[in-house]
Amino acid sequence: CQSPIGEHTAKSTPHRQHATPPVGMASLSATSATSATLGLAIVGCGQIMTHHTAAINAVADIASIEVRALCDPSSDRRDAIRAIVQGDGDGGGGADRTIHEFNDLDELLSSSSVSALCSLVLIAVPHDLHEAIAIKAIKAGKTVVLEKPLAPTLESCHTLIRVSADLVLEAGVTAQAAAQAAKVESGLWKEGEEGEGGMEATDAADATDKAEAIARSVPMLIVAEQSPYWEEVALAKSLIDDGAIGSVVSAAGYYYESMRDNITSGVDAAGGLGWRCSVARAGGGIVIDGGLHWLRPLRVMLGKEVDSVVGTIDYRSPALRMEGETISHALIKMRQRNTECGAASGVGGAGGAEKPLVATYSANLLATAPMAHDVCPYFRVTGTEGEIVIKGTGLFANGGGGARLYNDEFPEGKELFDADRQGAFFLGFRGLWVSVAQTLRDNNHKAAHQTVKDAGADVAVALAIYRSSETGQWETPSITGDE
């Protein structure tokens, strides 16, 4: 059976060194010039915020999002983020940009003048605070961008999914009511009338615009998970969907990191245990934290959801002082549509019997040891006609990352990214913020809600691995909240 893309595979598929804009950038750029700038308040100025703010700076001309307030109890952390926001170049606003500072969200909300400048709130705080702070900001009328994970427990995930679903419903009802009210106010129809009678097209458009403006007052909840915008992952998904490696038969994800140059774990400023080392605060160890960035790409690249998992966790890095696991290995059973012609991942393929694909997942966190990033890949997806390998050098600020394609056309492997490229994994933050901006411009509550459901599914998989480690059995991820 011929490959689903036939000659296209060998001749015109983008098997090239790759240096494209972040995912979604092209679709937004055409409208950004006329869009009003959105004011952003940051709640939590920890290490992850350095990547968010650098990305916001980098796509500032396209996304039209401007940081206007910082909330964190540590002035040192606020200073570090303000320096990035105000920095010259790469979209930085320069030293003359006014950045208002507060100890926490409550202080910001109590300042009506500053709060009015910020329609958008980015929350990156300890996991156990996600639910309460996100709901507080939403009740204040702010659209919330919430750093992953959605929450550390299924109960909190359920709550936030329901909150997001209610916002989708409220937006729909508000838009419908506003549309009718605008038409009544304009004298275009009377209450109880069916249809729009002799309404002029321009009058109808004006009424619709007014209704949409009112509907925009309903906030959204968006979860910030950048791994779908990781350029290697996005390109691998595209190639898999196009059948570049045939039908996928196996996939593996391996997250490994040494904390020798990472300040996000360990002791806190007071000399106590850092929050990411606390199971009560983080929800677990490596799997529910950085490991989620490796669970989501497996779902994205293969195009299917997780049916069940069996796994184990262990504690092998005492120097990190972590209560949660530092090592995990798991088998992840996913539903993949196998077809006679080999349409990869069941995306865009013809019908066929559903057959599970079992992916492997490993995570390993060490304190100070050097690691073999240059030879061990982060992901390896094998198909009936080749492989795609995502390189393991993407977690450094200057790491090149990259991916290689192996198939009949490139039996020795083809580099898919420029050799001098830098950023790799962290470039995904740019695509994330372009996507956030697009969702806001489109007032797309359903797209926002999908990010919440996807994030809930990630947490459910992590918690299923934890349960399996205790039971020794296959466990099914379970997440609800928007029935």
Description:
It is a single chain. This protein has 15 helices and 14 strands. Helix 9 runs antiparallel to helix 10. The N terminus is likely disordered. The strands form 2 sheets. An 8-stranded mixed beta sheet has the order 8-9-10-7-11-12-13-14. Strands 3-2-1-4-5-6 form a 6-stranded parallel beta sheet, sandwiched between helices. The chain is globular, with a radius of gyration of 24 Å. It starts with 6 loop residues before the first helix and ends in a 12-residue tail after the last helix. 36% of the residues lie in helices and 19% in strands. The chain is α/β, with parallel strands linked by helices and 483 residues long.
Gap between N and C termini, in Å? 42 Å
The largest β sheet comes out as: 8 strands, mixed
3D shape: globular
Q: Uncertain regions: pLDDT < 50 for 5+ in a row?
A: 1-34, 194-199, 337-351
Main structural class: alpha/beta
Binned strand content = 15-25%
Number of strands: 14
Widest sheet: strand order?
8-9-10-7-11-12-13-14
Task: Bin the helical content.
Answer: 25-40%
Order of helices and strands: HHEHHEHEHHEHEHHEHEHHEEEEEEEHH
The overall average pLDDT, rounded, is 82
Integer-rounded radius of gyration: 24 Å
